[in-house]
Predict the structure.
Amino acid sequence: MATKKLGKYQKMRDFSVTPEPSGDTTKKRRKKTIFVVQKHHASHLHYDFRLEMEGVLKSWAIPKGPSYDPGTKRLAMMTEDHPYDYAGFEGVIPEGNYGAGNVIVWDNGEWQFLGPGDDPVKAVEEGKLTFRLKGKKLFGEWALVKIRRPGTKGNEWLLLKHRDEFASENFDVTTFAPRSIVSDQDVDDLTPRREWQSNRAASSRRRAPTLADALKKASSKKKPTKKQATTKKGAARPSSRKATGGTKKKATAKKGGRKG
Ligand code: MN
């Protein structure tokens, strides 16, 4: 059932290479509907805002992220439905794959449809929905409104904050709380997962052989400490590594060091 809806999502990805969920497993209906916001550093940094509907995640990519200022409307580009399991995804999408780059779970929680009407799917189809969020960073009442103007591509929406007790003109939530609510890492701190390196390195597909080969080669070498890795030249994102050590040790313990 979910698989059918996810045709576009699945067509865009090679699951022998990317660690993202394939969406092949179906799930039981739950009473509470979830939302997730993933901070995604692909070719450009953006925030993927996803609302659970009918067992999948309706998705919008928001370049600047949400704003608590009711006067600040944020552009939100509607993207393909994602599998329910994607809500837990945090990791590195390898080079050469769709959306290549780092993903963290920036916020999540429950959402409640407020209208108009009583069918959120219909509201999306008609281009307007208001809802309440109960996350760790995002709270209160929000709206997504489709832009209807000649010359727009048809996937452009606006995310805006309604006036309520949470609204604030002077609080930039993306700056104040930039990190993952799961691992406490910021988006550029992530390193590729070890299971991906060891199980799936030399892919038979033509895409991304270069990085897979490099990782395979690198994983046969001695594992560098975090400190050494940050000083190593030629790393994929040299400027993004922060040697803050300490508090992040636990979260990164299972992951391998990123090597150039
Ligand atoms: Mn994205």
Q: What stands out?
A: The helical segments are 2-5, 7-11, 120-126, 173-176, 194-200, 209-220, 226-231, 249-252. Confidence is low (pLDDT under 50) at residues 194-212, 222-260. The chain is about 20% helix and 30% strand.
